[in-house]
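Help!! Second protein's tokens look totally different from the first
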Amino acid sequence: MRENLPLPPAPEAIELRHLRAFVAVADELNFGRAAGRLYLSQPALSRQIRALERLIGYELLRRSTHRVELTSAGGAMLERARAILADVDSAVAAARAAGDDMAGRIARLMDPRHALVGTAHRQELREAFESLLAEFPVPTEIDVRPLSAGGVPSFVLTPGAERPPTVLYLHGGGYTMGSAYGYRSLVGAFCVAAGTSVLLPEYRLAPEHPYPAALDDVIRAYQWLLDRTEDPSTLAVAGDSSGGGLALSLLAVLRQRGLPMPGRVLLLCPWVDLTCELMADTASVPLLTLSRDSTRDYLQGHPVRGPVLNPFEADLTGYPPMLLQVGTGDALVHETRLLAKRAAEHGVEAELDLYPIDAHVFHMFWSFLPEAAQALTRAATFHRPGD
């Protein structure tokens, strides 16, 4: 059986503007009217047609003083060019519709929580946040088991066969909300992508347990991991939002106590400026209000000074390689940029990934937002067991 020979590929220099110019002239059979339709000068339109003909190697339009007509080559190309342009326009429209739909879906999930800020009690906000987290699926490949990590109630999330955890994940929620149970979706997705087990501690929350209660819990959980590994460089610490700030507080304490650092640090939309000054000009009123209230409840008058609470006052020299991810429309993008810059100035291998997303901790939407899935995959490749 004889196979069909493949057609030679089209010249790579052919662009959509060439095809649009050709179709416009073929429709109008007049260069002047076609140029007006495309908002081009007539000489510019003529140059595009000539460029297309040179790339193809055949004359597509026959011009004379009084008329323009298609050649046989032009006739053969016209309907196919129309189909190409229609497909491109359809693809762009579909992408825009999907983008609008995803933005709307994110807004529908987030708006009920934002509406409570400034008007609801802390417990109502906690319940709203847990309801939001419950909207997201937990990957079916993940096994979740409870344990006590140095006396801290925790979960270990494992993809497939049981293996020791190599990542300590610190959930967000402004030090006052969120839970290890609620974060099974996001952390589970990371587990699947990275192929590693993760320790997810249920650290204590403010205002019932103000600073340094959460940090003390995190230190005990990290020490539990250290006691079960021969090589600390195989470990990673990860956190989103306030969990990212807690991760940096942990590193500062490890340095003070002379304890081994992890091999990698993953910071997802990290909230590291507890003064809230760096977000004041860009944050929405609900987020800024929530952040200030959370800081008040967490610190309860403790000053935001020193390396443990303020990484912008810390010497980051010798810190592990960091991956920082944030959306370009996130109110924390400015402080994330500044943190990446400061880390690099102190000799830290700091990689900053920016995504065209407005939502804070957009990674939560991994089940339907392509950028979130992409970010988690990127974070997974940054840390692998044994890297």
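Here's the second one for comparison:
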Amino acid sequence: MKRIGGGGVRRRWDRHAVERRVLGVLRVAVVAGAVAAAAGPVLYGVVLSVRPFPDVAADPLGLPGPGSWDPSAYGRALAPEERGGFGLAGFMANSLVVAVATTLAAVACSVLGAYAAVRLRFFGRDAVNGLFLAVYLFPGIVLAVPLFVLFGRLGLTGSLPGLVLIYLAQTVPVALYMLRGYFQAVPVSVEEAAEVDGCSRRQVIVRVVLPMALPGLAATGLYVFMIAWNEFLFALLFLAPDRDRWTVALGVARLADFSVPAPVLMAGSVAVTVPVVAGFLLAQRLLVSGLTAGAEKG
């Protein structure tokens, strides 16, 4: 009887071990498949951007040999037009100015608005909180013509400051909604303790609320930056006549012409992702530092 009982326990243990191994293999396979599906096209684009065009035309799916790397496509995509390039570096500089200005202005305005919506009591507060995202009920093309007419009368069409104002109107509602959730997570007791210690409302926001909501600020700023960096419709509507003020979205759209070699197109596509990737890395560091600071204060 003891042998039978011991054998049953052993069989159950073996079955559980096999199940764990199978689940482990399936987990690795699913993760590897997801990584391949997400990173595969990006890696292929990077490889394609450093292959000579004759090799790409002969074998589009091939890999470059040890001595066949040709990064000249990046120089042609980024070089100014008077030097035979496509001027993508200048377009990236314009987009960087617009995106950074939009991010700073949107986050600064949204911090005050989101804090007021969460902590201050005023008539219609619930209705205001519910209308934060109402602007997104309308497609961008519906607002394009009225905004173009309005900014045309103000003399702001064809200018980067006018485009910043457009992006600011687009991003402030969603930034308010995102920061509102982070500010709600800040304990009211912490703010009350700071007020008891003699802090004013402004000091409470700057010294207590913002450091504790730093991960939310980083995430919101990155999201706004990506919207301003990738937006195409309003950039085309406001900046199309003036090529010197084009943003990177317009520049990449120009590279999509059939006359542009595939390596140049992929080189430009890879180059325009560098600021976004850098923003992700910077936001990751801010998220970690914000969480660490909150843990130390706790």
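Reply: Different proteins will give different token patterns, so don't panic. Residues 11 and 179 are 55 Å apart (CA to CA).
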